[in-house]
Design goal:
The structure is a single chain. The radius of gyration is 31 Å and the shape is globular. Strand 21 and strand 22 form a beta hairpin. By secondary structure, it is an alpha/beta fold. It folds into 5 domains: about 200 residues, P-loop containing nucleotide triphosphate hydrolases (Rossmann fold), CATH 3.40.50.300; about 70 residues, Arc Repressor Mutant, subunit A (Orthogonal Bundle); about 180 residues, Rossmann fold, CATH 3.40.50.300; about 140 residues, Orthogonal Bundle (PCRA, domain 4), CATH 1.10.486; about 70 residues, SH3 type barrels, CATH 2.30.30.140. Helix 3 packs across helix 4 and helix 14 packs antiparallel against helix 27. The strands form 5 sheets. Strands 9, 10, 11, 12, 13, 14, 15 and 16 form an 8-stranded mixed β-sheet that branches. It has a 6-stranded parallel β-sheet with strand order 3-2-6-7-1-8, with helices on both faces. It contains 31 helices and 23 strands. It is an enzyme of class 5 (isomerase).
């Protein structure tokens, strides 16, 4: 049967001459350029050469990337299969695909567009045999990889205390990010030799089981291209255009992978060797070296400069037109980042006008800072009409969220912790709270099960199952069922219950914050997180729990020196008190009731439970956004508060030892500033309870690196000026006494040891000749060397004030200049 005649489409196409078709295609291509500024248009229409696009914050880089791909396709320079587009998140890849589909009638899902790991996985799936993998190899996520390493360690009787599984995981992943297989890893000592041996055993296990972790995806795909010239040549010819987003976040291996695809000769080639064929495609790298903030993940900002040099890049286009922020905000960001020496350089501008000045507050304490932030948020919502979800509070580390969360909770303001858990919901905090509950009530089986083997102490699932069976049979709590077990299980559990009894005894007569510190150290939680490569933040959160306890005791009227536990301990087994199992008693009396008037520890645990359970924003609810600066990258808000701008906090202590670390901190501050559209608030506190310590901090250098004309100081910038001389803002300023004279309001929320500004006369008298005594009576004077338990050795620059108000300005070797109260600093003079 003859085929039915087609529609009139072929006839219509026949009428369209090649010239007319080309003209129509050109019109469609130029339509893509509508609405682009001159810089964006230049980037989209670049010739087929390597190029670097320096895309500032809010400059429309995603639009440029997708329009560049659409332009190449629409003008016939490349087919969809000839484009390789690399992003850093699956979300960004999906957004680019959606935008392309809206621009052109094509299915973008078939294109090679995705994350580094996603594209590497696709490459390995296609060439699994050449890569030496089974066809159905499985990918291990981070938790699966850790479980695999733990199995390996158990199989080979690895000492978990000396070589923790998580540290081995970081070691292995770090080697892979550097492109190092076990034979390539330098061996310095017996410890590193053992790690390399375990790395090799881990690789053998993965190969045997047919699995690959994330790091393996990148390294194996790189080696696939390196070792197979035919495949390398195929992909170099196929991908005529390679586009990379967020280029500043690439690590060493990812950059080497890109160079392998583009045909650049690899580092280490012998002189005189003929260079490999240059048949690879052109690279358009899009990024912002001023927003490189992931060095701790292996990101290497130097890849951008290396790219320019190694590829002979002639085209560098700067996208400096910002479509997000007003002028004062951008002026502050531009001047701040100009203090970085190693940058390619650009200057953001806007057509939105100057807008509101950046407001800066010096609060007397972190409590007052948090109260001011919440007061301003309520003002913005009530009088400014801003949705809460368009307001963000940013901080350098998660531990700082505690004070803000507490005030939001007390004020009944819904909030959401973005990219993480609220303070009292974090795992390390819940572990510590469980230990504290066991001090009050050892019959709390939920808390018992949470920490009985955390930190690990050799108590497995089988042992706990036997213990629970014995407790059910005797109608007793778990801790009383320990004597029913035998052998090693009984000994390990008895050691655990004995530790609870010991901590309970040591806690007698201690204040609430002291009990928290005792439990964090005595339980082994602190040592556990110290042993983890990335455990510092968890450790800081645990230290912050002591600050939260002290603040709670003062705010609830218990007083700073109130004893945390009731005078009489809860009734325990005699064996538990001695640290040994006793005869079981199914009829043992329950723990004694707390004394009349709930003791501070019980009240604090109730407070923690309530804060963890209430006021968290529900799905879709309008809520204030709380997050670290790292988590804020890529986001934007109408109003942004950046808190804790103090030396040692932001910039962080750990970053001040090297110029590179300080420059990354400055880039982090730059990212924070450029999240704000209309309003930006900056704040710092004279006194801050953080990580369990009272800190007398100097304001961040970043505040002094911003232009005065863009800032509006709500409190005096210079300590010698009267607070009454500076304009205040909002009811929060009046409530804190910020416009009522030089000393007004500065004692708010500080308890007995309030910080008071020193009059100029006293300051003049307290110069290098001045001396003061520590709490132990040892004289501290300017010019001497001292030791501090946290900051180490330092030199005293000057003494301010006298008696209980005396403070020392000290320059520490690794932590910079600190202003410490001698009444609490516990300094030790050095010879």
């Amino acid at each position: 049967m003859p085929a039915a005649p087609d529609s009139e489409a072929p006839a219509a196409l026949a009428v369209l001459t090649p010239a007319a078709f080309a003209a129509a295609r050109g019109q469609a291509a130029h339509a893509l350029l509508e609405g682009l500024n001159a810089e964006q248009r230049a980037a989209v229409t670049l010739p087929a050469e390597h190029a670097l696009i320096l895309a500032g914050a809010g400059s429309g880089k995603t639009r440029v990337l997708t329009t560049r791909i659409a332009w190449l396709l629409q003008t016939g320079q490349v087919s969809p299969g000839g484009v390789l587009a690399v992003t850093f998140t699956n979300k960004a890849a999906r957004e680019m695909q959606a935008r392309l589909a809206a621009m052109l009638p094509l299915n973008a899902r078939g294109m090679w567009m995705g994350t580094f790991h996603g594209l590497a996985n696709r490459l390995l799936r296609t060439h699994w045999k050449a890569a030496g993998l089974p066809q159905s190899f499985q990918v291990l996520d981070v938790q699966d990889q850790l479980a695999a390493i733990k199995r390996l360690c158990k199989q080979f009787n690895v000492d978990e205390e000396r070589w923790p599984a998580r540290q081995l995981q970081w070691f292995i992943n770090g080697c892979k990010e550097e492109g190092l297989r076990p034979p390539d890893v330098p061996v310095k000592d017996a410890d590193s030799r053992r790690k390399v041996e375990l790395y090799e055993l881990y690789e053998q296990q993965c190969q045997r089981e047919g699995v690959a972790d994330f790091g393996e995806l990148m390294l194996r795909s790189y080696e696939l291209l390196r070792d197979h010239a035919d495949l390398r040549g195929h992909y170099r010819q196929r991908f005529a255009h390679i586009l990379i987003d967020e280029f500043q976040d690439t690590n060493r291996l990812q950059y080497a992978w890109i160079k392998m695809l583009a045909g650049l000769p690899q580092a280490g080639a012998h002189p005189g060797e003929p260079s490999p064929e240059r048949t690879g495609g052109t690279i358009m790298a899009v990024g912002d070296d001023d927003q490189s903030i992931y060095a701790f993940r292996g990101a290497r900002v130097g890849n951008m400069a290396d790219f320019v040099r190694e590829f002979g890049v002639r085209h560098q286009i700067k996208l400096e037109q910002n479509y997000r922020s007003h002028g004062h905000i951008l002026h502050a960001a531009n001047l701040l980042i100009s203090h970085n020496q190693r940058r390619l350089g650009k200057n953001l501008r806007t057509a939105l006008g100057a807008g509101e000045p950046v407001r800066v507050l010096q609060a007397p304490s972190d409590f007052a800072e948090a109260e001011w932030v919440v007061d301003e948020i309520r003002h913005l919502v009530r009088e400014g009409g801003l949705p809460r979800q368009q307001i963000a509070v940013l901080y350098r580390s998660n531990a700082q969220s505690r004070a803000i969360e507490s005030q939001l909770f007390n004020a009944g303001v819904p909030y959401r912790v973005y990219g993480g858990l609220r303070f009292f919901e974090r795992a390390e905090i819940k572990h510590a709270l469980a230990w504290l509950r066991l001090l009050l009530n050892p019959a709390d089986d939920t808390s018992f099960l949470r920490v009985v083997n955390f930190p690990p102490r050799g108590i497995g699932a089988r042992t706990l199952e036997q213990l629970q069976d014995a407790a059910r049979a005797a109608h007793a709590p778990l801790h009383q069922a320990v004597p029913a077990l035998t052998g090693r299980a009984r000994a390990n559990l008895a050691a655990f219950t004995g530790l609870i009894a010991t901590l309970r005894q040591q806690a007698q007569g201690q204040t609430l914050d002291q009990v928290v510190e005792l439990v964090v150290e005595g339980s082994g939680l602190a040592d556990h997180y110290r042993a983890e490569k990335d455990g510092q933040e968890r450790l800081e959160n645990l230290q912050e729990l002591a600050s939260a306890a002290q603040a709670f005791a003062q705010q609830e009227g218990f007083g700073r020196d109130a004893v945390a536990l009731p005078p009489a301990a809860p009734q325990m087994d005699a064996g538990m008190e001695a640290g040994l199992p006793a005869e079981m008693d199914a009829q043992a009396a329950p723990a004694s009731e707390p004394a009349a008037g709930e003791p501070p520890l019980a009240a604090f645990l109730t407070h923690a439970a309530l804060e963890a359970g209430d006021n968290q924003a529900q799905a879709g609810q309008d809520a204030v956004q709380l997050m670290t600066v790292h988590a804020s990258k890529g986001l934007e808000f109408e109003a942004v508060f950046i808190t804790g701008l103090e030396e040692g906090i932001f910039p962080h202590d750990n970053a001040q030892a090297s110029p590179d670390g300080l420059e990354e901190e400055r880039r982090l501050m730059y990212v924070a500033i450029t999240r704000a559209r209309q309003r930006l608030y900056l704040s710092h506190a004279q006194v801050r309870m953080l990580h369990g310590q009272t800190r007398y901090n100097v304001r961040s250098r970043f505040l002094d690196e911003m232009p005065d004309e863009a800032l509006k100081w709500l409190t005096p910038k210079n300590p010698g000026r009267s607070l009454a001389e500076d304009e205040t803002f909002g009811s929060a300023g009046r409530r804190f006494g910020l416009n009522a004279g030089p000393n007004a309001g500065l004692n708010a929320g500080l308890g007995e040891r309030a910080w008071r500004p020193m009059p100029d006369a006293a300051r003049a008298a307290a110069l290098p000749s001045a001396t003061a005594n520590t709490r132990e009576g040892a004289p501290i004077r300017a010019g001497m060397q001292v030791f501090h338990n946290k900051f180490g050795e330092g030199a005293v620059l000057e003494i301010q004030g006298t008696a209980d108000d005396a403070k020392a300005r000290i320059e520490f070797k690794r932590h910079g200049v600190k202003l410490l109260a001698l009444a609490v600093a516990q300094l030790t003079p050095l010879p």
